[in-house]
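Q: Here's a chain of 286 amino acids. Please give me its 3D structure as tokens.
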Amino acid sequence: MADGNLITQVLLPLSLAFIMFTVGLELTAADFKRVVTEPKAFAIGVLSQVLLLPAVAFALVLAFDLSPALAVGTMIIAACPGGVTSNLMTYLGRADTALSVTLTASVSLLSVVTIPVIVGGSVVYFLDVESAPDLSVAKTVLGVFLITTVPVLIGLGVNRRFPQFAARFDRVGRVLASVLFIVIIAGAVLSERDNIVAYFAEAGAAMIALNLIMLTLAALVSRGAGLGKPQRIANTLECGLQNGTLGIFVALSLLESREMMVPSAIYSLIMFPSALGYMLWARRNL
């Protein structure tokens, strides 16, 4: 139990904070000017993640008739922003990396509001009073703020004050962040290894559907809005690659539910092959 508390209360938050720090480290003040100079691409990306993704997740939860805990877990991953993996894959896809990073950072900042609202509403909707965890709005806001907003702002500040260091550390930081992400997901799966097959049987199809539908919708919306190829790829990947580490943090550290963690772990496992397939297809066909 002590080891479990160490992981969920110390190692997980610190790892997530470092991952978000690497996102901020890639940002410059010029990136945020995109909100004004290129508002369409930015607005489509934000609205797709903040509104469209949770709406699709909610519809799928009802369609697949998931258990209450897994339903809340699905809404948790839907409330999470994109992560460092979306930035990295956008970079590898030769798309608009600056837009991807700006979206990740901006939606991460917004998650201080969106996660408490979406997750809190899901707890009330799907769980009865007796089984619902005690979700403190103040604790949730503070927790999300400390492990997403603060590290992003610190990274932004470091990049602005020490740009040469930020440039040198960026590649190492990306690798370390990716390794931490993989370790966290692997640990989450292993911690539930006795139940993971049953959980995947119940929630796996819903997570696959959520991922594929969001990749498709984001691509169609971006194309319909007349965005350029680099922006379409960036927005699509941003909607298909969510911050599973944050989802696990919310489930384990804020809601103290291992079952609610499962959708984030499953989604994190299945999102890479589909996003990689889209990226390779988009580079050749868009």
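Q: Can you summarize the key feature?
A: The domain at 2-285 is CATH 1.20.1530.20 (Na+/H+ antiporter like fold).
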